[in-house]
Design brief:
This protein is of the alpha+beta class. It has a single domain, classed as DD-peptidase/beta-lactamase superfamily (Beta-lactamase, 3-Layer(aba) Sandwich). The protein has eleven helices and 16 strands. The strands form four sheets. Strands 1, 2, 3, 4, 9, 10, 11, 12, 13 and 14 form a ten-stranded antiparallel beta sheet that branches. It has a two-stranded antiparallel ribbon with strand order 5-8. The chain has a two-stranded antiparallel ribbon with strand order 6-7. The longest helix has 18 residues. The C terminus is likely disordered.
């Protein structure tokens, strides 16, 4: 998942097929509600609509909430270009590399339980990772292991493009990655790789004795109250959902990727969620606390997670499965047909969620970054959402940060 386009996360081939491309005009008026002042709401509505027209984006949902003050929740365009169904704020979507924030949370909970230590070598817990006696758990979580990103393997990209419904096992994905030599010695630099998070997913399974899906449901999703967030084991996505459009196909023909199998992203990018659930998740992720006041992570572990180190890209830092982009802390996600942003700006007490049902880049770059920047330049002008193109992933399906031939995963 290429989602971190400033973080290559599994960049799943993003595809943006807009309703305009399909010869349909986006819904004439935005759906949803806005408690911000009327002038700001109008500016946001107009700017988002203009950005969608510029990039030919079929549908967008945006949520912007300021602690105890105002909010802006709007959907624009269509969720299904064939039926002309309007985009709505309550639709399910695929979140790509935002999945990484959940997987790494599971790892950090095991740290809190004394089951592992961040600076232990991964070989202490898992066999078969090349150089695993020198790669630490911390380096896997903060993208500094040097392991090759499997979503950039040319043969894998061709296989995915030929059959996007194929089910992949985590071991198959790692076998692809481990055929390649390390990109650099562990800790030498930052480089987004979905491989890191797949290894961490297997670590959670081994130490917990549960599937990653079951572990996250019991220890993360249910405690936070995320009833509409899931880790699918196949191509399933709850209804009603936003159809996702991509051109990561043979010949570049636009396709509906809604039911493509996200198993290739697994721990790095397979999850589904909604605008409202992501709104709930971001404060828990960035604060380490549960909605009822309990702890998601111990304070020291949370502080460790939030310590974002430089990535080599201006304005972009990366912690333990979490990014800091010009003050916005969270993650983005991209995979074929879908792009997402879920982040918090502590200085303004703000939470931003962006959902786009396309990854088709027609020269504008990441669609979610385009919408995120459009919104924040108006709402939080001192902290615009900005991901340098060089920081984006480089593989078709996405599993997120720094951009590929598609899919990259985000």
């Amino acid at each position: 998942m290429r989602s971190f386009r400033a973080l290559p996360a599994m960049a799943a081939a993003s595809v943006l097929l807009t309703a305009l491309c399909a010869g349909q005009a986006p819904a004439s008026a935005p759906q949803g509600r806005a408690d911000v002042d009327a002038a700001t709401a109008e500016r946001l509505d107009d700017a988002i609509t203009a950005a969608m027209e510029k990039a030919d984006i079929p549908g967008v949902s945006v949520g912007l909430w300021f602690d105890g003050r105002s909010s802006y929740e709007r959907s624009f365009g269509v969720s299904d270009t064939a039926a002309g169904t309007p985009m709505k704020t309550d639709l399910f979507t695929r979140i790509g590399s935002v999945t990484k924030t959940f997987t790494v949370t599971g790892v950090l909970q095991l740290v809190d339980e004394g089951r592992l230590r961040l600076d232990d070598p991964v070989s202490k817990y898992l066999d078969g990772v090349p150089g695993g006696d020198r790669i630490t758990i911390r380096q896997l979580a903060d993208m500094r292991s040097g392991l090759f990103n499997y979503t950039e393997d040319k043969a894998w990209l061709a296989a995915f493009q030929a059959d996007p419904t194929r089910a992949w096992t985590p071991q198959e994905l790692l076998d692809i990655a481990f055929k390649h030599p390390a990109e650099f010695p562990p800790g030498a630099r930052w480089e987004y790789s979905n491989t890191n998070t797949v290894v961490l997913g297997l670590l959670v399974e081994k130490l917990s004795g549960q599937s990653l899906s079951a572990y996250l449901r019991e220890h993360v999703l249910d405690p936070v109250g995320l009833d509409d967030t899931a880790f699918p084991t196949g191509p399933e996505i709850p209804s009603p959902y936003a159809h996702g459009y991509t051109d990561f196909t043979p010949g570049g023909k636009v396709a509906d990727a809604s039911l493509w199998n996200p198993s290739w992203g697994w721990a790095a990018g397979a999850m589904t969620s909604t605008l409202d659930d992501l709104r709930t998740w971001v404060p828990a992720l960035t604060g380490g606390k549960l909605p009822d006041g309990g702890r998601l992570l111990k304070p020291a572990t949370q502080a460790d997670r939030m310590r974002a180190l430089p990535t080599g890209h201006p304005g972009v830092g990366y912690g333990l499965g979490i990014a800091d982009i010009n003050g916005w802390v969270g993650h983005n996600g991209e995979l074929p047909g879908y792009e997402t942003i879920a982040a918090r700006l502590a200085q303004d007490g703000a939470v931003l969620v962006v959902i786009v049902n396309s990854d088709i880049d027609k020269g504008t770059g990441s669609l979610s970054t385009l919408i995120g920047k459009t919104v924040t330049e108006i709402a939080t002008p001192e902290h615009p959402w900005s991901l340098p193109a060089a920081a984006q992933p480089n593989t078709p399906p996405d599993a997120t940060p720094p951009a590929p031939p598609k899919p990259s995963g985000s």
